[in-house]
Amino acid sequence: CQVIVHDVNELTEKLFPIVEAMQKHFSAGSGTYYSDSIFFLSVAMHRIMPKEITQIIQVDLDLKYKTNIRELFDEFDNFPEGAVIGIAREMQPVYRHTFWQYRRENPQTKVGEPPPDGLPGFNSGVLLLNLEAMRQSKLYNQLLEPTMVQKLTEKYHFKGHLGDQDFFTMVGMEHPELFHVLDCTWNRQLCTWWRDHGYSDVFDQYFQCEGEVRIYHGNCNTPIPED
């Protein structure tokens, strides 16, 4: 087992020029803070990690594992042709909210609608990054270009504050083929904030998750159930 520690400042220095353009669209603060770049690490991981690293799992700290993480690595084998990232759906109507203007202008859209047929957006608490595929994908790398980010944010009237998650969500609306959707049991989010903030009528359609949970995600400081 080999452990390599990376210097956050060094990473940020490499990241900033790549993700600077998207920060103003997907950061909490107004403007572009240099330090915020780290919240976009996953987006450009393929440009920063050494070429010999071909796959990475990136996870949040507020997780509880109910199974061996090795099983999650097996999900890389299930990526369809052209997919570069494995990610689970967002389990709250946060993007129903964020895309309100686009949804109003496109009443038939699946954007922001709940599963199984809708596009609820993604949650970046558990990420499978196929770095080799990310490097090879012409489409994915085009989407990192400032002009493309600008074009998509304008099309979807998108203004977010969740960093990489917002970028993946917006790209997923336009190019779902870039993503392998992980089962909800690999990222069972527990936050219920949006239930009490205007979406109680539809909340459960987003929040339900069948099957034995493999990873709990105590997002928004939600307590994780004891065994």
TrEMBL record:
Please give the biological process terms from Gene Ontology that the record holds. protein O-linked glycosylation via N-acetyl-galactosamine
Q: Name one GO molecular function term.
A: xylosyl alpha-1,3-xylosyltransferase activity
Q: Which Pfam families match?
A: Glyco_transf_8
Q: Which regions form coiled coils?
A: none
Q: Write the record's keywords in alphabetical order, separated by commas.
A: Transferase
Cellular component terms per the entry's GO annotation: endoplasmic reticulum membrane
The highest taxon in the source lineage is Eukaryota
Q: Know the name of this protein?
A: XXLT1 xylosyltransferase
